[in-house]
Amino acid sequence: MASYAKYSKIAPEFDQLLKTLPVAGFTEDSTVEDYRKVVDALGAFQDALYTGPKDCDVTGTAIEISNGVSIPVKVYAPNETARAAAGNRPPSILFHVHGGGWVSGGPEFGHAHCLWFSSHNVVVVNVDYRLCPENPYDTPYNDSYGVYRAIHQAAINREYHELENWGIPEFDAEKVYFYGTSAGGQIVTACAILDIENNRAGVIKGLFLHATTAVDVHLFPTEKISSDEEPSMVQNKDGPILTSMDMARFTAWRNSPPDADRYFSPLVALSDEVLKQFPKVYHEAYGMDLLRDGHLLFAERMKGLGVDTRVQIHSGYPHSLFSMMSAWHLEGSKVALNKLEEASRWMGVF
Questions:
Q1: How many domains does the chain have?
Q2: Averaged over 312-318, what is the pLDDT?
Q3: pTM, whole model, 2 decimals?
Q4: Environment class of residue 177 by beta-carbon count within 10 Å: exposed (0-12), middle (13-18) or buried (19+)?
Q5: CATH, residue 328
């Protein structure tokens, strides 16, 4: 049985930071709009503090995915400096899917990461998928997958005029990657599943799963955790950034399926046959995250099926902290960025 409780011991530098952080103050009466205001403010705040490379051009456009439905995206195209540093080889492409509990967030929530990737000669498409509860639970991953399919199909068919209209430069269509944080990690996982189930296995070369949701908490396999410790959903239920109440609200607003769903709970509901076809996966899990155990068990299940997998555990830090550039002054975040660069080179992103 797995034992992960030791990773919850708070890191001293985060303990100091925590004393300065404002409390969101969500209650059971908080609305979707209350959550959206906080997430939107957080996105703007962290982006304003980004001091990393910006060797790219950023444009906004919309991608038609089906029946006249168009999804807004931000496109990050490497500039001459980034291309020259990479020997002017064709860039890879990465689809960035933001977090926010399926009900909040937008392209600004992850903008800094997109700048960082694109400055390493990567075309980044930051997807502004439609949110729940205004839209059905499967809308976020169908939108994200639809954007990927439309862009990749245009590249395969050499529809360069269409790509140019979207602000997307020519890229290596054999080097496709997805990056998702929190709810975005679940969406990215669902995109990989859809691609395999549609007989396109192998097109997506790698996934970055950052503090991801791998199972509905009501379906968590508690028998897989050592009986001597509490699972993370209990141990970290009042943790910073994401609490069990928050997660319950997000899941309810998402209108999640009542039964095990392979797209929402792949840890317990996805078949071995599909999971073993996954591309390379880089997992970033957080010790103080209530989603920790589900994420780590998902990584272990992948390893057991032979999926090429790497895992980085940010011991003593809370849910998705290092996706927030405002925290990148921490020593732990510097380690996270170095590991992200190592993982990107391991995957072949750049």
A1: 1
A2: 97
A3: 0.96
A4: buried
A5: 3.40.50.1820
